[in-house]
Design goal:
CATH topology of the largest domain in chain B: Rossmann fold
Oligomer: heterodimer
Strand order of the largest sheet of chain B: 6-7-8-3-9-10
Number of helices of chain A: 11
CATH superfamily of the largest domain in chain B: P-loop containing nucleotide triphosphate hydrolases
Strand content of chain A: 25-35%
Mean pLDDT of chain A: 91
Low-confidence stretches of chain A: none
Strand content of chain B: 25-35%
CATH architecture of the largest domain in chain A: 3-Layer(aba) Sandwich
Structural class of chain A: alpha/beta
Helix content of chain B: 25-40%
Low-confidence stretches of chain B: none
Radius of gyration of chain B: 24 Å
Number of domains of chain A: 2
Shape of chain B: elongated
CATH topology of the largest domain in chain A: Rossmann fold
Order of helices and strands of chain A: EEEHEEHEHHHEHEHEEHEHEEHEH
Structural class of chain B: alpha/beta
Distance between the termini of chain B: 28 Å
CATH class of the largest domain in chain B: Alpha Beta
Shape of chain A: globular
Number of domains of chain B: 2
Number of helices of chain B: 10
Radius of gyration of chain A: 24 Å
Order of helices and strands of chain B: EEEHEEEHHHEHEHEEHEHEEHEH
Largest interface: A-B, 45 and 46 residues
C-alpha cells in the first residue's frame, strides 16, 4: 500500500502551472523529494497536507482524499517547514505542548508526549529556555519535535539540514533515519543536497518543472556503471600509460583513472600494473551513477556514466 | 613566506573580539589563486574572517592584506575584492538588473549597464533580471548577489555559503563558474558546510575551530599528518582469506579483520599499505574486486579536527 498516491495532480496559479499532471506512488519508508527551485516541491507538499486545493486531478495521503478529508488527514501527518516558523518568546516545552493540545491531546498526555519528543530530537536543558536564544541546530530540532509530537504516521520535512554545520547535519540525518526506521514513520524529505538523499532515503521522487522526472528505489539511481575508477597515490600518468600498453583504454579525470570494466582481466591488469610500477593503490571500485547525473546536461551525463 | 608577489589574501596574527567575546583568535594564513574552502562549525568565526577580508570589519589586532594592500580603511581594495555575504542582502523593490547595475555604479564602472549584463549572464539570471528581487527564490537571490559581487571583475572573490538555497542544477553551474574563474588565475575563498562539495572543487582548505586556525592546506596532506589515526581499507577480492594470509607477512599492515563478510585492512601509513596491496594480491593469485579507503575523506579529516 502506498502512503501517497496522486493521479494527474495539477495546480495552476493564474497562467503559471506549478504542477502538471503529476502521477506519484510513494511506498512506505523514507522518500527523498528532489527538484529544481520552482519545480513545484512546496506546492506539492501544501497540497498533500490538504492546505491547498488542486486545480485538477486527485491525491490520496494515507488513504485520505486531500481535497475532502484535510482535517482528518492532518491528525496523521506532521510537517517541518523550511522557513523559521518558531515564536521567539516561549520555550520549546511550552510551544510544543501547546501544539500537542491543538492536535487534541489532553493536558497531561500533551506534557508527557512533549517531554518524550524533545528527548528524542535531542533537546535537553535548553528546552526550558526561550527559543529566541537557540542556535540553528536547536531550532531545527524544535521544528522537528513539533512535527512529531502528535505521533504522526507520515512526516514531511522541508530542507531539514538547512543552515546546519557538518556535525549538525550528521545529527539531523541520523535523527531522520532513526525516526523512519525505529518508529516506522514514513518520511518525505525535500532536499537540494543529493548526497544526503543518497545517504538516508529508500526511495526518491524527482520533479522538474511541475512534472515527474523519475521515481523509484534509490538503488535504481545509484547502480554501478560499466566503468572502473582507480585512484593511486602520486602521478597517475605512468599507470595510465601502462594500462594503455596492456590494451586497456584508460581515461584520466584528475587523480583518477577510468577504464571499461572488462571482467577479471581488467582488474588483474590494474593489480599487476600497480605491482610492477610499485605505486600505491588507494581506491579501486566500480563507478556508480549518482542522482546528480539527472541534473547534468545530457552529454555531460553520458560522459559521467561512461 | 616569500616577498614577491604578494599573496592574494594574507592574515597576519589577526584577532577580532566583540567585548569579551573572542570571535577570531590570532589567525595567520595566506591564500593564493585557485579555490580555497573555509570550513568550521557554526560560530567558529568564518563570517567574521570573510568580512575583515572585504574591508568591512576592523581587526581588533593584527592585519588583513589583500594583494599586498591593507584591507581596512582602504577603499582602493574594493576594486579588487568581491564579497557575497550570507545574509539576504538584496533590495526587494529593485529588479535584479537594477541591483547589479547599482553595484556597478558604486564601483564607478565606465559602462554599468554592460558590466551588469555580463555579470548577470555569468550566473544565468538573464531571463529573470527584469523582475523585482523581492519575488526571487532563495537560489535566485543567491545568484543575483554573486552577479553583484562579480560585476567589477574582481581578482579576489570571497563568498559566505554561496551554495545556500541553490538547487542541484544551480550548484553544478556555480561549481563550473568557480572552476573557470579559478582557471583564469583568480582567488576564490568560500565558506561552506557541504564537505562533499568542497572536496570536489577546492584545491586547499582552511579549517577554523573556535576562532583559531586548526589546519590549512590540501586535506589529503592534513590527513597524512594525523599519524595517530590508522588508515583503513575495505577490500573485496576473489579470495579474501588467501589475500589476508599473504598480507600478514607485510610489515606495512598492522591489522586485518573480517567484518560483515568483507576484509578490513588497517595500516599506520596509507602509502605503504596501498603499495603492499596489489603486490600481495598478485603473489597470492587473487583478483582485487574493490579497494575502498574508509577514513580518508574531507568529512573524516574535518570531524577529527573539530572533535579534538
Amino acid at each position: 500500500m502506498h502512503v501517497i498516491e496522486t493521479a494527474a495532480l495539477t495546480r495552476r496559479f493564474g497562467a503559471v502551472t506549478a504542477l502538471d499532471a503529476l502521477d506519484l506512488a510513494v511506498p512506505p519508508g523514507i522518500t527523498g523529494l528532489v527538484g529544481a527551485n520552482g519545480a513545484g516541491k512546496s506546492t506539492l507538499i501544501r497540497i498533500l497536507l490538504g492546505l491547498l486545493p488542486p486545480t485538477a486531478g486527485a491525491a490520496r495521503v494515507l488513504g485520505f482524499d486531500v481535497a475532502e478529508d484535510g482535517p482528518a488527514l492532518r491528525q496523521f501527518v506532521g510537517y517541518m517547514p523550511e522557513h523559521d516558523c518558531l515564536p521567539g518568546d516561549v520555550s520549546a516545552t511550552e510551544f510544543i505542548a501547546h501544539l500537542a493540545r491543538v492536535s487534541g491531546l489532553p493536558a497531561a498526555a500533551a506534557r508527557e508526549r512533549t517531554a518524550e519528543t524533545l528527548r528524542h530530537v535531542g533537546l535537553f536543558e535548553e528546552r526550558y529556555r526561550e527559543i529566541r536564544g537557540y542556535s540553528t541546530g536547536m531550532k531545527q530540532r524544535a521544528k522537528l519535535a513539533q512535527a512529531l509530537v502528535h505521533d504522526p504516521r507520515l512526516l514531511f520535512l522541508d530542507e531539514p539540514t538547512n543552515g546546519l554545520d557538518p556535525a549538525g547535519r550528521d545529527d539531523m540525518l541520523d535523527l531522520v533515519r532513526r525516526t523512519g526506521r525505529e518508529f516506522g514513520i514514513s518520511i518525505v524529505m525535500a532536499s537540494h543536497l543529493l548526497g544526503e538523499i543518497e545517504r538516508v532515503c529508500d526511495n526518491v521522487v524527482v520533479i522538474d518543472g511541475g512534472r515527474l522526472l523519475r521515481q523509484g528505489p534509490i538503488a535504481e539511481f545509484t547502480a554501478a556503471t560499466g566503468t572502473l575508477a582507480v585512484e593511486i597515490e602520486g602521478d597517475a600518468g605512468p599507470l595510465a600509460a601502462a594500462l594503455e600498453a596492456r590494451g586497456y583504454p584508460a581515461r584520466r579525470e584528475g587523480r583518477i583513472i577510468l577504464l571499461p570494466a572488462d571482467g577479471d582481466a581488467a582488474l588483474d591488469a590494474i593489480r599487476d600494473a600497480c605491482a610492477d610500477l610499485g605505486v600505491g593503490l588507494v581506491r579501486l571500485e566500480h563507478r556508480r551513477q549518482a542522482l546528480e547525473d539527472l541534473f547534468r546536461a545530457p552529454q555531460e551525463a553520458a560522459d559521467a556514466a561512461r | 613566506m616569500s616577498d614577491s608577489p604578494a599573496p592574494a589574501i594574507e592574515l597576519r596574527a589577526v584577532s577580532r573580539w566583540y567585548g569579551n567575546v573572542v570571535a577570531v583568535n590570532d589567525v595567520s594564513f595566506e591564500v593564493g589563486p585557485g579555490i580555497t574552502g573555509l570550513l568550521g562549525p557554526n560560530g567558529a568565526g568564518k563570517s567574521t574572517i570573510l568580512h575583515m577580508m572585504a574591508g568591512l570589519l576592523r581587526p581588533s589586532a593584527g592585519e588583513v592584506r589583500i594583494l599586498g594592500q591593507p584591507a581596512w580603511r582602504n577603499p582602493a581594495i574594493y576594486r579588487s575584492v568581491g564579497l557575497v555575504p550570507e545574509r539576504e542582502a538584496v533590495y526587494g523593490f529593485l529588479s535584479g538588473r537594477e541591483f547589479v547595475e547599482l553595484a556597478a555604479r558604486l564601483h564607478r564602472l565606465p559602462d554599468p549597464a554592460r558590466a551588469a549584463a555580463r555579470a548577470i549572464d555569468l550566473v544565468e539570471m538573464g531571463s529573470a533580471a527584469s523582475r523585482p528581487c523581492g519575488g526571487y527564490s532563495k537560489g535566485m537571490k543567491q545568484r543575483i548577489k554573486i552577479a553583484a559581487a562579480l560585476v567589477h571583475d574582481p581578482q579576489v572573490l570571497v563568498l559566505d555559503e554561496p551554495f545556500n538555497g541553490a538547487d542541484p542544477r544551480q550548484r553544478l553551474h556555480l561549481m563550473d563558474l568557480f572552476r573557470s574563474m579559478a582557471a583564469e588565475g583568480r582567488t576564490i575563498l568560500y565558506s561552506s558546510h557541504i564537505l562533499e562539495e568542497v572536496e570536489r572543487i577546492a584545491d586547499t582548505v582552511l579549517v577554523i575551530v573556535a576562532g583559531r586556525l586548526a589546519a590549512s592546506g590540501d586535506y589529503r596532506s592534513i590527513r597524512a599528518l594525523m599519524t595517530d589515526r590508522p588508515h583503513t581499507f575495505i577490500v573485496r577480492s576473489s579470495n579474501d582469506r588467501a589475500l589476508a594470509a599473504r598480507l600478514l607477512d607485510e610489515p606495512a599492515i598492522h591489522g586485518l579483520a573480517f567484518e560483515d563478510g568483507r576484509l578490513e585492512v588497517r595500516a599506520r601509513e596509507l602509502l605503504a599499505a596501498a603499495r603492499a596491496l596489489p603486490a600481495a594480491a598478485r603473489a597470492a593469485g587473487v583478483t582485487l574486486y574493490e579497494v575502498r579507503p574508509t577514513d580518508e575523506s574531507l568529512e573524516s579529516v574535518f570531524s577529527y579536527l573539530v572533535r579534538r
